[in-house]
Amino acid sequence: MHRLAWSAVLALAACSACGDGEGLRPADDPSLGPDDAGVTQLEAGAAALDIHTAVKEGILTRGAAADPHRTNPDARLAAALDSVRFVVIRAADRYGVDYRPDAFHVVVGAGVAQPEGSLRIRRDWNTSGMVDGNNEFPEKHGVAVVVEPQAPRPFTPKVAEAVARVVAAVAQVAPVHPDCVVAMGEVPYTNLHEADPDERALAAKAREGLRPPPVDGSLVIRAAGGPVEVSYERRDTPLGIAVGMMLRRGFDGDDRGMLFTYPNPDYRYFWMFNCLVPIDVAFIGEDGTIDVIHSMEVEVDPRKRPRSEEWRRYPSRAAVKHVLEMPRGWFERRGVKAGDPVELE
């Protein structure tokens, strides 16, 4: 969910140092050509460490390309690891091989042109090329895991296992929530016309081995009916704030939310770009009380709306530094209203 201040659009930047590539095996497929030194070919059943190393190299390379001017190594590393928020799984058959050749993506072999369960990992990252249409955000902040074209359906256990191992390697490096591992058909505003059950089965398999990250903190809302405690994930980096609940299949529990913390108070609004589930949002004013609560609806495909119709915006009424997102209907169920005090850690 993209968050914007009234005064300016939030700028996104991600940066990092390049890895040294130690332990990576060069691609041995001559069809890759002379410009494909950034590709690592792993055999079926490759060690988890090899997969992890290649994926980490890709994330660090992507971060360096995004902002080569930042010189603090720690800041560059942190920003690079923060730059990956999604894993989108797709079968290549629907589009052939038109994913970008200069993208950071993983192609899983299915016994067609590559051995079943093998991995071709491209570390040079421009955009992931995983989303067709005009939805560029997941391309910039995600990893595409693509099963090679003309793979037999349904996908074999060896293919599913290879996909799951790649996703696990990404999650070890980047802050990818299990519910941010999605099938192509779940990504809003692509040019898909039907759901693909095989893609969804792969995504479900990959999510099985992942666990939600621990909570970052808790807060207490002093409602009229008594105190209400909330555990939350914190979003306080530019990218984390901008992404929020984008491409997220849901919250981790009824009393767990997402808290956005900005460096300075300002009038702000939220919108539901790329969001999969309805969300309630509470803007918390500088006086520590809830300024306003909105129930935000999932947006329809913008291609199906009149051209004059804009994205709906849900604004604060005052300058705020904190914003709390919860599952739809949570505030009403807990008796929480505008004006209630919020005690932050």
Would you mind describing this structure in some detail?
The chain is of the alpha+beta class. It has two domains: 3-208, no CATH class; 217-343, Sandwich (Jelly Rolls). 21% of the residues lie in helices and 25% in strands. It is built from seven helices and 16 strands. The strands form three sheets. A seven-stranded mixed sheet has the order 13-12-15-10-9-8-16. It has a six-stranded mixed sheet with strand order 2-5-4-6-3-7. The longest helix has 19 residues, at 48-66. It is elongated, with a radius of gyration of 21 Å. Residues 2-35 have low confidence and may be disordered.
Please outline the helices and strands.
Elements: E1 3-5, E2 39-42, H1 48-66, H2 73-82, E3 86-91, E4 105-108, E5 119-122, H3 137-140, E6 142-147, H4 157-173, E7 181-183, H5 197-208, E8 217-223, E9 226-235, H6 238-243, E10 256-266, E11 268-270, E12 279-285, E13 290-296, E14 314-315, E15 320-327, H7 330-333, E16 342-343
Parallel strand pairs: 3-6, 3-7, 4-6, 9-10
Antiparallel strand pairs: 1-11, 2-5, 4-5, 8-9, 8-16, 10-15, 11-14, 12-13, 12-15
Helix pairs in contact: 1-2, 1-4, 4-5
